[in-house]
Amino acid sequence: xxxRSLAPITSGxxxxxxxxxxxxxxxxxxxxxxxxxxxxxxxxxxxxxxxLDLRDRMTSQQFAGLKLVVLNACGAKKLGSQFxxxxxxxxxxSNAMLHDSAGQxxxxxxxxxxxxxxTVAAAFDAALVALRGDADAVIRAxx
Length: 143
Prior knowledge:
Blueprint: H1 2-6, E1 17-21, E2 23-24, E3 28-32, E4 40-44, H2 45-58, E5 68-72, H3 77-85, E6 90-92, H4 100-115, H5 120-132, H6 137-142
Parallel strand pairs: 1-5, 5-6
Antiparallel strand pairs: 2-3, 3-4
């Protein structure tokens, strides 16, 4: 669950990347359950802030190993800001409507660059260049 992903890790390793693909509105994500069609949960900025505050009270470490949050959703800037305020060094999100094709094109290059050793900033820049050079006008407009 998202709550467990944000909770402090007391033993073993911890994730360094949290990737959320969801539907987004101006102040929340709509998370669907794959095993329960038509079941959705709203994650608002207030709920996320409460989860981050609870995690901070439980541990003195800031998000242990979590270094990157990717919010693959429309209009996720407010939620992204909550992660930044919660101490996450790198947050990637969109402030506008995000077409699936543009998101896929961006993430393919972004993660490909990261897996080849690029920094988050360099991977982000490479993904933007790929969007701007795409043959599809909808994808280019997303850059």
